[in-house]
Amino acid sequence: MSAVALRESFAALEPIGLDELVAEAALQTRVDRKYVLNRERAEGVLQWLAADTRVLEIDGTRSLAYESVYFDTPDLLSYRLAAHARRRRFKLRTRAYLDTERAYLEMKTRGSRSATVKERIDYDIRDRATLTHEGRDYADAALDGLGIDPSSLALVPTLTTRYERTTLFVPSSASRATIDTSLSWEDADGGVLRRPDLVIVETKSGSRTSEVDRLLWANGHRPATVSKFGTGLAALHPDLPANKWARVLRRHFT
Predict the structure, then answer these.
(1) How many domains does the chain have?
(2) Strand, coil or helix: what is 107?
(3) By CB atoms within 10 Å of each CB, which of 29, 82, 206, 244 scores lowest?
(4) At a CB cut-off of 8 Å and minimum separation 6, what does 196 contact?
(5) 179 three-class SS
């Protein structure tokens, strides 16, 4: 079964534009859940989506190509802070929307009170694999606010992820879900991991549980602890500490 076959299961859904999606489901305060499925099971579940589910469509395209480049120190400080679930941690990446040729530099931080903050700035898509002077200044300010001295940190491109994403909107609960397929990872040394057989589903809902969550639960699927950055780097480098993602690695990456 190909990724094309999975995408065709969304063909009958009504489209929704980006501006309308943001207006209908901004979800500033939300609960995110991630699920890892093989493609056959994903298609078996997602064919039962509610008839009023809509799919994001941009310029006639419903499956959009994404590329993210993650920056870390040579000794993988960002990775290790996440792997050991440190209260103060950060994740720095560029995210490129290849179909629309837009890119952003994003910094996700978690401070001493466990509040997660995700911010981003516009970025030249041609610079997505490098940290420009402007990008470094932006990162330094965020690190300084986290209590980490940025002057002691070298930040270099460490991992690149690529995938295709379909975004769903469920009107009855004003919730969203993203379906990521054609997943691949490439580290700074040229090591490559491709998992075309995997699908990562992420639901984003407000105070009410989303219909997509309930559909997944009814078919025996439960949320998983997975990070494209952390899990991908651990799969490429089995010597790294990875207890946080051990279950997903054991079930889906070995």
Answers:
(1) 1
(2) strand
(3) 29
(4) 3, 39, 181, 182, 183
(5) strand
Give one word for 113, left, alpha or beta, with left for phi > 0 and alpha for psi -120 to 50: alpha
Q: How many CA atoms lie within 13 A of 225 on its CB side?
A: 12
Look up residue 73 and give its amino acid. T
**How far is it, in rounded angstroms, from Cα 90 to Cα 77?**
9
State the burial class of residue 200 (Cβ atoms within 10 Å of its Cβ: 0-12, 13-18, 19+): buried
Structure token pair of residue 174: 């004003």
The answer to whether the beta carbons of residues 81 and 89 sit under 8 Å apart is yes
**φ, ψ at 145 (rounded to 5°):** -65, -20
Tell me how far apart the alpha carbons of residues 149 and 141 are, in angstroms, rounded to a whole number: 10
Q: How high is the mean pLDDT of the chain? A: 91
Predicted confidence (pLDDT) per residue in 130-162, tens digit: 999 999 999 999 999 888 999 989 999 999 999
Compute CA distances 178 → 44, 145, 200, 239, whole Å: 16, 31, 8, 31
What is the Cβ-side half-sphere exposure of residue 213, based on CA atoms within 13 angstroms? Answer: 18
What's the CATH code of the domain at 57? 3.20.100.30
Pairing of strands 54-56, 14-16: parallel
Q: Say how far apart CA 173 and CA 207 lie, in whole Å.
A: 9
Write down the pLDDT at residue 1. 42
- Residues in the chain predicted with pLDDT less than 70, given as ranges, are 1-7, 26-30, 111-116, 207
Which H or E run includes 186?
Answer: strand 175-187
Q: What is the pTM of this model?
A: 0.91
Domain that residue 80 falls in: 3-252
Residue 149: CA atoms inside 13 Å, Cβ hemisphere, count? 2
Residue 193 tokens read as 């991991």
